[in-house]
Amino acid sequence: MEADILKILAQSTARYFELAAQGGAAIGTPYLRDPEETVTLDYSAVIGITGAYRGSVYYTAPVAMIDPLLGLIGESQAEDRLRADLVGEITNTVAGHAREQLGPGFMISTPFLLKGRPADVQHSGSDPCYIIPVNWRGHSSRLLVTLARCEENAA
To answer: How far apart are CA 122 and CA 49, in angstroms?
Structure first.
C-alpha cells in the first residue's frame, strides 16, 4: 500500500475530529496488523473501495468514545441506532475526503454497520491490513485500511 494513502486517511480522520469533535484527536503511527490481534470494538463501519484501488476502510470505536461525540453533535440521548449511524458517518466522511484527494478512481460504497465485537475482521486476499490508532479524550479507536492498487489501473 502506498504511504500517501495512509497519510491521506490519517489526515482525513484528524480533519473529522477537528471539525465535528472540537479537535483534540491524536492520530497514531500506522502499523501493520498482527493477524492474531483483536481489532474490533463496540461499534464498527466498513466501506468497500473499488476502482483504481480495491479493499476496505474500516472504523471501529468503543461506546465510551461514541457517546460524548454524540453529545457534541447535538444528540442528547445515546442509543444503538445513533451510535451505529455516527460510526458510519465517521467512516463515510474519512473515505469521502480520501476520494476527494485521490479522484474518481477511488470509489466508495455505503457503510456497512456492525454492533458488538464480531469474532474478527477478515480481509480477503493477501493484502496487508494497516491500523491507524485514533485517540480522543482518553479513548482509543482504530481506522483499519486494506487497499491495493488494481493491476489494470497501475501506472
So the answer is: 15
